[in-house]
Amino acid sequence: MNVGRKYIPVILSVILSFLGGALCYHFGLRFLPDSDQANAWFEAQDMAQGNFFLKGWVNSPDNFWLIDLLGMAGLLRLMPASMTVLHILPAVWWGGIIGAACYLALGGRRNRSWRCLLPVMGFIALVPLYEQEAIAFITYAPYHVGTMFVALVGIIAAGRVLDGTGGKLAQASLFMFVSIIFISDPFAVCCFVMPTCLVSLWRIWTDDHPERGVRCFVPVIMAFVAATVIKTVIHVEGGFHSLHVVAHFMALPELPSHLLLALMSVLDLFGINFWGKTVIGHANHNSLTDIVRLVPFVFIALYVWRYARQRVNDVRRNQCFAGEDSVSDILVVGLVMDVLAASILDFHIPGEDIIRYFLPVLLFATIAYARSDRAGDASGIFMGAIVWSLLACVLTWHPRTEQDVDIDPYHVGHQLDVRPLMAVLHQQDLTYGYTDYWHASLTTLASGGELKLRSIMVNEDVSAADKAACHLASRPWLSKRDWYLPADLQGTDRVFFLVYSPVFPKNDEYLKQAAVISNMGTPDRIVPVDDEFSLLIYDRQRVMSCHGLFEWEKKK
């Protein structure tokens, strides 16, 4: 009987991982992709076809090379040209996150009771079921979800090194996971790598076994060196080029609104944002589940607050900051650093899309609480919250058809329905054109490559001598150089520009009709798409005369 109970947590962990991943895949089908995902798919396809270093590509600072891109490339080898990988990979990552969270929850103070998994079940495993806006976030790749899986398994390895239960294998694993982070996504440096270094240094300074801190700190430094070497090799070999985006502190006038969005993001991630929702209604807009889940959330918040305050008091009394539970130390330090960075820094992310930067708060706070003895004491409350919130979901369930999709869940104009645009282009027999970033690669992917739309911008940085020249320019952001070569226009006599109509002014990120006409002249034809967009159609030779569209090298 005792042997059977011993395996209950393991079996439950496997079930939760599979269930959470399956829910993530199922509900992810309701959200349209965006151009970030489309470009990642094109990169992964290029990797699957042998371009492992992604020669000719320009990426963002978080290139996701060894995480999402490599993962999608592996799936594309199994399912060539399948767009389903955009839904499968996030499901795999989320299932892996649940498995790692369960493992960490079971490791706290040798607590092997299945009840310590209830916080993980209520706030991580069943997140997709509640249809909050956070679902869109966890069903997109690349979107830091895979990065957090790497961070969690890295924390497992760091914990084993710091506690002295892991040998060379744990150190090698820590080295590998930190290297992946340094190479592919600096997002986890703040919430995983830096907290691990801080806890290791405190161990060296104050612990009875300082060598354990050294064994943890050294692989991190070695990983940084190795990552630097690898990125240098990629650059020398002509591989992908990562652009740099410098973060700034928020301007004081903008800080209050940013902090409010930050708070909303955290509430959405925990599924407790009931503000503005009806008490009983559609599962997407009812407040019953949010209010019920608010009760266990309070327990988690109080635990993290007391844990941090206790550690601060230990430091003041010149005691060891890192207690016996080094993993919880890393988790709490990581979530505090993440909250501070995401709340006061400007990462050029519009609106509630900043929710991505608060994912460590959801994961780390829940796991840290699950590792504590207090989680077992409050198991009845968590069980009740899970049961009642599931019941509320069932009672307010609203079935959807396959055609029902959620467009632009964060209201920032990134997730778009390009099907009407594709219909007009097919009707006009147009296959090649230029437009803004958010319409370009998404339309190309959705059409299966039949339609080619390239992202361009208006180059405002011109000298007086170049005022008469064409200032339309290629946009080297998550794109490939081959897309902007003159040879890419072969096979078409007409080239279109998808532009916003004058009555719909947008910011500089979008392509305006007046800007194209001022640079290219009067188009041969203007075809309205809808009240917001128009197609400006030009002869291919006129487009070829705009050299900025083909001068990638000068802008690199």
TrEMBL record:
Keyword vocabulary terms for this entry: Membrane, Transmembrane, Transmembrane helix
UniProt keyword Membrane present: yes
Keyword S-adenosyl-L-methionine appears in the UniProt entry: no
Transmembrane segments: 7-28, 85-106, 113-130, 142-162, 174-205, 217-234, 255-276, 291-308, 329-348, 354-371, 378-397
Name of the protein described by the UniProt record: Glycosyltransferase RgtA/B/C/D-like domain-containing protein
